[in-house]
Every structure is written in C-alpha cells, then in structure tokens.
Amino acid sequence: MAKLLFTLIGASSPGTKPLNTSLLSAVAERGGHETALFDTTFMDLGFELDTEVSNKISQFKKIDYDRYNLVRDSNINWKKEFIRVLKEEKPDIICASAMSDMFYYTVKFLTYMKEEGYDIPVICGGIHPTLQPDDAISHDCVDYIVIGEGEDVLLPLVDSILDKEDPSYMTKVPVWYKKDGKIVKTLGNSLVDLDGLPVLNYEFYDNRQFLRQFEGKVLRSGDVQTMRGCPRRCTYCANAELNKVYQTMEGWTGWRVFTPERFVEEAEYLVKKHKLEFFKFFDEDMLLRPEEDFAALSELYKKKVGIPFTMQTHPGTVTKKKVELLKDMNCASMTISMECGNNHYRMHELKRRYTNEKFIETINLVKDAGIPRVTALTMIGLPMESRKMIFETIDLARQSKPTHTNANIFFPYLGTPLGEKTVELGYANKTEIRISKFDASRTLLDMPQIDSEDIENIRKLWSFYVTWPKFMYPLFRWLEKDTTIRRSILSVLRKIEYAIKPFKKCTA
Length: 508
What we know:
This protein is of the alpha/beta class. The protein has helices at 19-30, 50-56, 78-89, 100-115, 127-131, 133-137, 154-162, 239-246, 260-274, 291-304, 320-328, 343-348, 356-369, 387-400, 417-424, 430-435, 452-460, 462-467, 473-479, 484-500, and strands spanning 3-8, 34-39, 93-97, 122-125, 144-146, 175-179, 182-185, 211-214, 217-224, 227-229, 255-257, 278-281, 309-313, 331-339, 373-380, 404-409. The chain folds into 2 domains: 3-185, Rossmann fold, CATH 3.40.50; 225-434, Aldolase class I (TIM Barrel), CATH 3.20.20.
C-alpha cells in the first residue's frame, strides 16, 4: 500500500472539487492505497480568482465570505504549509494535475519540494501534460506524465514506481518517464469504461469546499458529470486538440456518457453521504444526449435525487423538449455560451456555428420553460477584437435579455488553435504564456487596436454596460479610468444596483 498526495494548486474557487482529483483518488483507494490532499484554495497566492473578480463587478449576488470563512488567508506561507503537509502525510508519490494557466505554478511548488530534499516521485497529468507533453516532462521536478485519461493507468503506474520497475509495459494511455537521463515514451490506445469507474471521492476535501455561492446564498454543493468529451472544434478550447489525441484510441467517438442508471446511483450516494443541497454539472454539454436517453436520465434524477443544479450547454443542442425535461428535473440555472456578439468572428475564428438570432431564440426557449436563471457566457479581449466588437457582444447580451451575463477575459491556452494564433499574430509570446499564472482580472494580450487596460476596464463596468440605459454610456466610459473620485462614484453606483436594481435585466 502506498500513500498518494494529490495537489490542488492555483485557480480553484471555493466550492469546487475538481473531478479528476476526486476520481483519481477514488481509483487509488479502490486499489488499496491511501490518499491525501494539499489544497491552496484558501491561501492567497498573489492573484485574484474568477469568483472574486466577478463579485467585484457585480456578476454575482454578494455573500458574506467572512461569515462562511471563505476568505483566502494571506497569513499562510505556502512554502511552510507545503512542507508541513509533506512531513505530516509522508507521501510515497505526488499526483499533480494542472491546466496550462496553472502548470508553472504547480512546477514552482514541486521544484521547492525537491530543493528541500524531498525526493518523492511526481506524476503529472491533466490538460497541460496531454497537450504539451514535451514541455511538461522537461521540468526536473516531474518524473512521469500521463497523456490522456489516467484512471486505468494510475494503479499499474503506482505499482511500477513502488517496485522500482520500468513502466514500459503501459498500454492503456501514453506514459512518459525519465530513465538514465532519457525520456521514455510508451504507447497507449484505449479509453476508460465510464460506468466502471468508482464513485467520486469527496472525503479528503476541507468542509469549505462544499460551500458554493448561488443567488446570494451559500449551498452545500457537489461537482459531478454525466458525460465526458465534446465533439466540437471551438478554437479557444482544449477539446479541439484533445479530440486529436483521443481519436486514435479505441472506443473514441468524440464524447461518451455515463448511463442514466450509473450517474443517478452516484448522485444519490453523494447527496446522502455528504448532505448535498446543490450540484454543479461539469459536462461540456449534457444536452448532447439523444432525447430519449436524456428523458430517461431526467426521470431517474427527478425520482431519486431531485436537488437543484446548474449546467452549461451549446445553443445548437437546446430544444424545447430537452429544456422542459431540465425544468422537470429541477434545473435552477443554465449557462449558454455566446462568447462573442460578432457573427462573422464567432463563426470563422471561434468555430461556433450559430447566429445571433439562434442565440436569442435559445435564451427565450429557456426562459419560456421556466428555468429560474439563464446566463449568457461571453469572452472579451479575443485576438483581433476591437472595442467596437466588444460592444457588439454587449449589444447581443442586451438584445437576448438573459437573467445573468458573465464576461471572461480570454486566455491563450497553448496547444489550442486560437492560443497558437495569438502567438503567430505577435499578441503574446509562448514564454510569457507558459510562465503566466491565471489572473481573472488581467489580459495577456498586447494588441494594436485596443489597449489592455480598455479590456480590463470594460469588464470592470460590464454589468452597467449590459443592463443600464445607453444614455449613461459616456459616464461609464469616464468611470473606466481608475482614479480615487471615479472609484468613489463607481462604489455608489454599485450600492444603487444592489439596493434598487433600477435596470437589472441581465445580472443579479
């Protein structure tokens, strides 16, 4: 038996229990191993999380973070805390997973561990090692990387490490490792059986990781998925490249689902075990299911689980029947990706195949079905985007009239088509992107047609531009500049927003 220490480092917001960490730890424990977690969610690492920025700009109803002890502690020294956990847990193996915007922060932690004399084998997996394997394995602190789905390979890899054997026999998915100063690459070609996976492990999370804000309330929440994968080729998303990695593997169809019975069994267990009041579905698009299959899922969930949930989808999969089924199974919130209000840019640069008219129609379908909250998800600061184009996105949000709208600043993930194009256009360089840590309030792009500050300031004033009368736009434009008097005026306006909500149509 081994002790595996999983790391959760960087940009996770309170209330999020990453699916890969929850699942891989469950796989390890089913195999007879012990697991522990090092979690930086409540440490101040020097950058703002998305939820923190969103609260500042009125994208969410405010909650009392202090009341629920959800504030990150700036007094915690991450180096001392990491060493404390290592001394206390005495792990045999470190399992680290990270997206590209947090990978180098993860490397920083692991490098410090090695420098302090902890010669613990490190396995890295997740999106970054899968899409950028050469970069991931190049770091001295990384001993093994797993490319693709890791559930079937974790146990035999752990056994190989413990027995000091050469893991060259790995055949499930590619595993790269270091031997005699060289990098050895195994070949794998199969995918996991989703229904055969163990139930998600929530046991090692801090209790605060169950607390999610929703509509000004704090609910005890779980994180689940009913499917895996996405067949689309959106240029800003890792799925476009993941499909290329997986398409050579046995059983790949672009996306796969848990059977309704398997998913509902897991959901029912988690609700009872952890007294959950709410779910966040992390499916890329759960409405991809055929209507008959989705109806079966809806019926089972309604009968055996029934707690409210939030989910996301693509306008192309939303139908009147499916939305009615979602309402019937107690869907409290749907997020629908708009991304950009410029038809041509969205279709040709983002590869999002729907019109503005289709997006408006989709929002109306959801509202007509009685789903309480529908969020239009947008991005700003896209490559080649101008201030005028950003306001096309604002205009589409105003026209479609969702109950909420979120604006996220584009991050150029390396390995994605749009991330690589960002580099080709000279808007950012690969070194800068690789070493950048996620910061929800900043853009990495330096573009000639729009200042970085303009992008960041428009997001700061997003709720006002989307929901207040247009005759006030000159005032908001003036307020974009950060001065003491303007901050004071902006603070007053936000208080008015929360007090009387004079023009609130899209945010709450």
